[in-house]
Structures are given as C-alpha cells and as structure tokens.
Amino acid sequence: MNKHLEQLIELSHVDKEIDAFEPQIEEANLQYDALLATKNSITNEINALKQEIKDEQIKKHKNELHLAELSAKLEENSKKSNEVKTEREMKSLQLEEEIAKEQVSFANEEIERLEKLIDHKQSKIDELEAKAAEIDGTLAGVKADVDVKLARIDEERKEVFARKEALVGAMNQKGLSFYQKIRRWAKNTTAVAVRNQACMGCYMAISDKVYSDVIKGEEITMCPHCGRILFLEPSDAIGA
C-alpha cells in the first residue's frame, strides 16, 4: 500500500480515538453533574420557599397591626357607648362595632391561615435541606471517583496525542493539508473502508475501475460520489 495512504488511514484512526475521549469525559462527569444539578434545583426551591415565607410573614404582620388597630377602635367605641346621647349615635356606634368585629374575625382567620402556610413551607424547607445535605455527602465520593476516571482518560489522551504528533511530523505536508480539508466536513469518516464494492462513507457503489485502484492501493483513491479517501481493510485485501 502507498506509504502516504497508510499514513492518512492511520491518522484517521488516531483522530477517531481522540474524538472518542469527549464522550468518555462526559460519561465520567454524568453522575456528578446530575447530582450537582439536583442539588442546585433543591437550593433554588429552598430559596424560593424562604422568599415566599418572608412575603407571608409581612402579610401576617400587616394583619396583626390591623388587628391591633381594630382592638383599639373597639375599646374606644366601648368608652364612647357610655357617652352616647341619642339613639342615632347608638346605632352608628353599633354599626361601627359590628364592622370592626367582622374585620377582627377576618384578620384572625387570615393570620391563622398564614401561620399554617408558613409552618408547611418551613417543614418543606427542612425536608429539602436534609436531601441537600445527603447529596453533599454523596458528592464528595462521586467527585473522587470522577477525578480518578478523568486522570486515566487524560493519560490515555496524552499518549494518543503524542502518537498523532509523531505521525503528523513524519507526513507529507501536502497530503496532510489534503486530509484536513476533507476532515473539516467528513469528520471521523474522512478515510473509509470499501465493502461489497461500496463506499462506507456515502454507501454508494463504486465502479470496477475505482474498486481496482482501491485494491491496488498504489495511489490515494477518493470516492467519486462523496470525495472521501477510500481504502480496503486488511481482511478484505487478502480476499481480493
């Protein structure tokens, strides 16, 4: 097989190895990232509940102030009742008292409702904080495992990059430039095998003449349909 073709095929295999590291890294980080996302979601929910509690406490405080005002008003009306001189004044005072009592009843009910709501949300916060603490305890162990996996992947990647660097240094620069142009669009299918007289990049059948050139391997042969570099795998070459 043509030396330059061998180098291009080898380079395509090395590039595939390099590209395969990214999903390995993502997979290694997957569990840690999922736990971290859950923890962040819980933290956001806790913060939202705390803000809601603050808002409800403000509403409760306003109702308590209003209740204090109503109590003072009822007390004042009670004093006034001893000074009433006419029936009209008495009826007016009674009406005010009834309205005030209704407002007192409503304020008490609203305060009770808000207290229950605050207690419920605080219980939810306590539950979420317990979950967050549990996740924190797990995160450290998962991170340690991830770091071990990433360190191993990094070592393997360094070895592959070293092989690529050595290979590229020994290659004809014109052939390398030619390979890189195809790789820009073909990615990991820059150099593909021919099987059953078809390009494994575009899966189109190639002519007998092109297939014969691929079998010989004396020159770099490109697929006439898609432009990828074609080669015959060793086992197929033996059969051919």
Report on this structure:
- It is a single chain.
- This protein is mostly helical and 240 residues long.
- It folds into two domains: 3-171, Helix Hairpins (Orthogonal Bundle); 185-239, no CATH class.
- The chain has five helices and four strands; from the N terminus they run H-H-H-E-E-H-E-E-H.
- It has helices spanning 3-81, 87-170, 173-186, 208-216, 234-239; strands spanning 191-195, 198-199, 221-222, 229-231.
- A four-stranded mixed sheet has the order 2-1-4-3.
- It is rod-shaped, with a radius of gyration of 40 Å.
- The mean pLDDT is 92.
Q: In terms of topology, how is this protein built?
A:
Elements lengths: L2 H79 L5 H84 L2 H14 L4 E5 L2 E2 L8 H9 L4 E2 L6 E3 L2 H6 L1
Parallel strand pairs: 1-4
Antiparallel strand pairs: 1-2, 3-4
Helix pairs in contact: 1-2
